[in-house]
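Run log, item B.
One chain of 527 residues. Sequence copied directly from the ordering sheet:
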Amino acid sequence: MNKQYFTNRLLSMRMLAIAGCAFLFVGCGSDGGTSSGGTTNSSSSSTSSSSSSSSSSSSSSSSSSSSSSSSSASSSGTIPAGSSLVYAINAGGSAVTVGGVEYKADRFASSGSPNSTADAIDGTTDDVLYQSERYGNFKYEIPVTNSTYSVHLRFVELFHQAESGRLFSVTVEGQPVFTDFDLYKVAGHDHAYDIIVPNIMVADEKLTIELSASIDNGTISAFAIYSNAGGKFVEPPVVPGKDHKFFVGNITTSGNVRSDFIQYWNQITPENEGKWGSVEGTRDRYNWAPVDRIYEYARQHNIPVKAHTFVWGAQSPSWLNNLSGPEIAEEIEEWIRDYCARYPDTAMIDVVNEAVPGHQPAGYAQKAFGNDWIVRVFQLARKYCPNSILILNDYNNIRWQHNEFITLAKSAIPSGYVDAIGLQAHELKDVPASTVQTALDNLWNQLRVPIYISEYDIGETNDQRQLQNFQAHFPVFYNHPHVKGITIWGYVVGRTWIEGSGLIQDNGTPRPAMTWLMNYIKQNPKQ
């Protein structure tokens, strides 16, 4: 008997002792008690073929006295013969190919948060599939044709190192896979655990995997969907972003999206690549390539993009200075029209940036449209990007020129074109949490539009002081009922706009504020 087989047997017997028939209850309710009629499991990773083959472990099948299914609790189970891969997802992680199966980057989750580790994973040679997770109370809804499917679910306990730290439940298309399951008790820490759920009927054109927890959070590392009945994945049409979920996002790093971005953040803003001066430095010659890469990444990972920025007094094309007012008006409209046509799925847009007098208002736009230039620019954005959230963004309107920003916003919001306000939130270092809370409350009470924290950072090279500031401010933002999302302005040390504001070293080593932030989000998941 090899060591892996013994491990599979031991863990499976422990599982049966805990859950009995409930563990195999998909099998208990299936017809015929065939090996494809029950939920099957393994504490080791099993590799599933992407076409007409079945996954198997080194252990042999044997019947279980505690279940009417004949599939063995000690087996990794099988995907029904003749099945082909429909779609696979690396939960919480980037795209990866394992054993010939292409696992797509995480997408189609209703909520929850991603997490990752560099730990070695026991019981598998496919560590990469288990080194990321999505955790929380959430569901995946994978668009597929109505048909019959089998699902290979992969789990690992990355966090807890004692029993009863996590109890969670999983259903597939409403059928319970397990209930109040203690992953650590069954598989231990950092040990792969797989379950195959065969013969799932889909009748509503989406295959739903739902996780909920009675203690802590649900967790899943990866899953693959197969069909031997002709079922297919259906790529959904692009839907622009009015109803995005709460996010904690970030920006590009030195003009690129780092490969680790999706491990930490679920929204992206181009730092400089999407500014008008970057895209159209020469009149009528667009450089879309850097922006295209950002949108491609966001679409691959199913996260929203906030465009930054349409009209601003800085980083605008210098050639505007040589044009007349009517010519500038034509160019502004052309810029907005062309951006929206290229990226119709833009979720949010910083339409006008830093327009408060004394900041950096766009004098060229005033030359084009007169004193009502802000409303006119928003009107154009609504015309060409009708499904995007249009934001009036400004610099440090929490701490400085708070009342001036409110006055400006009150002149534009009644037009009906301004959907939300953006608070850049730079330089809040050592500002008390109570001051931040009061400012947010006043902005809401005065303006009555949703709030985005659009550019938060703490420039502090002292780790403890940066940590203390994050601990003071972030919960105020995160828990305010009218804050709809938070974008942190950079995260890599030495590669941020504000000196000392980086949160991880270039090699991925986190500063204390980053460790605290990731734990805070994990412990307080948004529904």
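Observations after the first pass:
- The first strand starts at residue 40 and ends at 42.
- The CA atoms of residues 379 and 416 lie 9 Å apart.
Flagged for discussion on Thursday.
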